[in-house]
Structure formats: structure tokens, C-alpha cells
Amino acid sequence: MRNLTIGAVMMTAATLLATSACGGRGEEGGTTATGECKGQQTTGITDTSIKLGGIYPLSGPSSAYGEIPKGTKAYFDHLNAEKGGINGRKIEYSFRDDGYQPPKSVEEARRLAEQEKVFAIFQTLGTPTSTAVMEYANQRKIPHVFVSSGASKFGADATKYPWTIGWQPSYLSEGRLYGQYVKTEKPNAKVAILYQNDDFGKDYRTGFIEAIKGSGVTVVSEQTYEVTDPSIDPQMRNLAGSRADVLLDITTPKFGSQALAADARNTDWNPLHIINTVASSPTVLKPVGFKNVQGIVSAAFFKDPSDPQWDDDAEMKLYKDKLKQYAPGLDSTIPYYTQGWAAAASLTKVLTAMKCPTREGLMESARNLQGVASELLLPGVTMTTGPKDGYPIESLQLQKFSGERWNLFGKIIDTRGATG
């Protein structure tokens, strides 16, 4: 446990009263059976402020994701200006660029934790990068919350990594959802799979393979790529040669656009193209041409700002109005901003519910969510966690691209239990 700093000793009387109720210097955080708080990690939180820091690829091959924190910042600016922050504490939010390079991710995590003295690292983007941060954060007992990756590792082992928790549905669950869909729609389908050669791609593939086990669906071709590859055109040519009925496209935005473009160019091959949520943004599809991506299938867990069915939705109207006010110039129909806003709103629920204003109190709150609804999540999608359940959101709905937007179909599917 870190010693109290001079800054902590000099906190205001109100903060001292709050933290003194948190007991002594016990190594374990949270609350006792009698409701008393314990734990002394008050770095980054005072009676008037909470410091949060995020890490994103603002540059490099995955820089499309660099738009997400802009939506997050707009939400916190709105919260601070119009609601006085959270329980009287204003959010001081900053985010750093790691270029999607794990060593740089750790460097930025150190800067946030040791120089900027953040209360928590919120929303690191990417599987390999977040894995590197997870090791550092858990060694230092720093909250690493709502990781922006669905890799199963970020919620699977709360004992080994008690300071890290995911947010979005796991890739394993999403892969199983696609497998179930293919079994229903094309029970004897031959499937070709393109996936990134890391935990991100392997989780999706594993979930899909598990879902089709014992059915008439077979995988006839698989191709992998590295995040450093300039192109996946060779892989797409090999997959096309399989003449598969279904293409499962497990890519990040840059490679998602390439895969869709290659599929469109090959007029002799017309598979059902399923693209994972990571690469389903209209910013990925638009360069390919909307006419070339008609009928592709994906999934969603938060509201699409370009979908007219949400035009009169109170949450969506608030989001668009406040994004315009606090982040002028941003296009509110781009889902990356919506995702950032939704993640910030979800964290606000956790921070509001903290029983003790400590890092331990934050993690206790994050691991005790019970059916919590949050802004911009699809109706029926809520957050639920437990001491051994590190997957707050485990529901998805399928969607198909038609015209110039995604169209939801079917029912919300709770994949709870598919990630264990």
C-alpha cells in the first residue's frame, strides 16, 4: 500500500473526515461487514475533484479509435458544468497517445499514475496495449476500469487481476453469437475466417468455433494477419478460393475496410459477410462505399446515433445537443463519440455508487453492479457484475447494414455465461 503523500496529509477537513471513516492501512479495500470503509488509497481524489486518465491510439494504424475519448471528455465537461460533477467532485479527465504500442502504453500509464496522480486509469483502448497496462496497474494497485476491449482476459480472473475490469461484451461472447446466427440462417454453411493473430482475434474465433460445434456448419478456410501488416489482400484472395458461404471478418478498422473492399471487388464470391463490432463503424464502411456493403451483419450494444429510430429518444437528443455544445465541430452521428459518451456515463454510475472515496471503494462498486441501466445503451442492455464476474455488459443485438445505416433485428441476446 502506498504511503500517504504530503498532498494527502494537507487535504481539506471534509476529505479527511471521509477517508478517516475508511479504517486503517489494511491491504484489502472495500467495506467491512458493519459497513465501515477501509483502505487508504486516496491518490487522485479529494472532496472537490477526481482525476481520471485514459490511453488511446491517437496516432498509428488504429488511430480511428482516437475519436472515442473526445466523446468521453464531452460527457465529463457536461457533467461538471451542469451537474457539479459526481457527488460534488468535478472530473479532471486527460488522455494520452500510445500509438497502439504496448511499451508506449505502459509508459503513458506510468505518466498518468506517477506524474499526473490519477485516481484511476479509465478506458485503455486495445487488447495488447491494455494487457500491458493491466500488469502494471495490478502491480501498483491502481484501478484499471472499463477497458475498451472485449478480450476475455479483462474479466476472467478477478483473483489474479482484481484492479482490472472490462466494460463491453466479450469477444468470446460475440463470437458465439455469430456462430448461433449462422447455425440458424445457414445450418450447412461452409465458413471462411479472417482474424488478427492475437488475443483479440483468437477470442472471437474460439467463441464462434464453440458455438458451431456439433452442427452442420464447418470452417473450410482460415487466414490470420498481424497488426503491422500493410495489407490483408493476400489473405482475402486465399479465403475467396475456398468458395465459403460465410466470411467471418475479425478485424480492426483499417483491416476491416480492406477486407470489405476486397470482398466487393471479387464479384465471383458473394458470401454472407459478418463483421465484428470493432470494425463496424460507418467510418470503416463509408470509404468502401455503402452500396458495396449492403447486407453485411454485425452486432451492437449501444444506440446508433445515425439510426432515425432514436431521433426522439431523450438520451440521444441530450447526447447530440451536449456534444454540439461541449465538443463543437464533432459529427454526432459517428459512433465512436457515442461509445465514449456511453462509457463515461457508465463509469459515472460506478463512481456515484462508491461507498468509500478510495481506489478500493471504486473497485468494490465496479464489481457490485446489479442490472444497472446507463445512458445510450440499447433498451434491455444493463450492467451486472459480481466478485467473479468482470463483464459488466453481456447483451448484444444483431444488426444488418441497409441503405446508409445499420438496422437492428431480432431480440436482445444475453450472452451471460458464455464468457466464463
From TrEMBL:
Domain Leucine-binding protein, first and last residues per copy: 49-400
Top-rank lineage group of the source organism: Bacteria
SUPFAM superfamilies to which the protein is assigned, alphabetical: Periplasmic binding protein-like I
InterPro entries: Leu-bd, Peripla_BP_I
CDD domains: PBP1_ABC_ligand_binding-like (cd06343)
PROSITE patterns the record matches: PROKAR_LIPOPROTEIN
Signal sequence segment: 1-23
Keyword line: Signal
Regions that span the bilayer: none
Family membership noted in the UniProt record: Belongs to the leucine-binding protein family.
Name used for this protein in its record: Amino acid/amide ABC transporter substrate-binding protein (HAAT family)
Lineage: Bacteria, Bacillati, Actinomycetota, Actinomycetes, Streptosporangiales
